[in-house]
Amino acid sequence: MDNGGFIMLTQKSHSENWKFQTRETQNFPDLCESLLTNIPNTRRREGQIKMLRTVAEILAGEREQKYLAVEGGTGVGKSFGYLLPATLHAVLTGRRVIVATGTKNLQEQLYEKDAPMLAGLVGNITGKNPTIAILLGKYNYLCQEALMRRIKSLVDLGCDLTDVEERELDFLREGSPE
């Protein structure tokens, strides 16, 4: 089972609550679209822009709906369609934005490529750089209690641990809190 995790975007300084100054005629969805269409080496995708504007409108409180489900094929630009308004919203409001992924591959793409690029873009125009953190699902961590139960059951069955396994277990025991 491929359990994804979360990407969290937040403003570095939570104490600051500031408003980004834009042209009077430019609202949040327009600003997001303007940023998206001016990213170097990207092409304009109508589906991506429609998604980005919808996400931006929801985040800006311009729609009654609070949730959105979007489906699209590979190459539509879904990641930028939700990450750009989410990143800009996090910086402008000082609030955290959490993005849940269904796969580790998508989580890695967002964390290693898309989120840092968009965070840099948002940081350049606002002067505020968001922090990006990765939060892994619970299946990515070792439960020491479960490990000890498993070892006990193996020992009870008469299984002997090799020297390498003993050293690995010692390492795990030393490196984790009691």
How would you concisely characterize the structure shown here?
With 178 residues, the protein is mostly helical.
Task: Report on the architecture of this protein.
It is a single chain. The protein has 178 residues and is mostly helical. It has two domains: 136 residues, no CATH class; 32 residues, no CATH class. The chain is built from six helices and three strands. A three-stranded antiparallel sheet has the order 2-1-3, with helices on one face. It is elongated. The two termini are 29 Å apart.
Notable traits:
3-stranded antiparallel sheet; mainly alpha
Approximate helicity band: 40-55%
Number of helices: 6
Task: State the oligomer.
Answer: single chain
- Low-pLDDT windows of residues: 1-6, 8-25
Strand content: 5-15%
Q: Tell me, rounded to a whole number, the average pLDDT.
A: 80
Number of strands: 3
For the biggest sheet, the summary is: 3 strands, antiparallel
Characterize the overall form: elongated
H/E series: EHHHEHEHH
Rg, rounded, reads: 22 Å
Number of domains: 2
Structural class by SSE content: mainly alpha
Note the gap between the termini. 29 Å
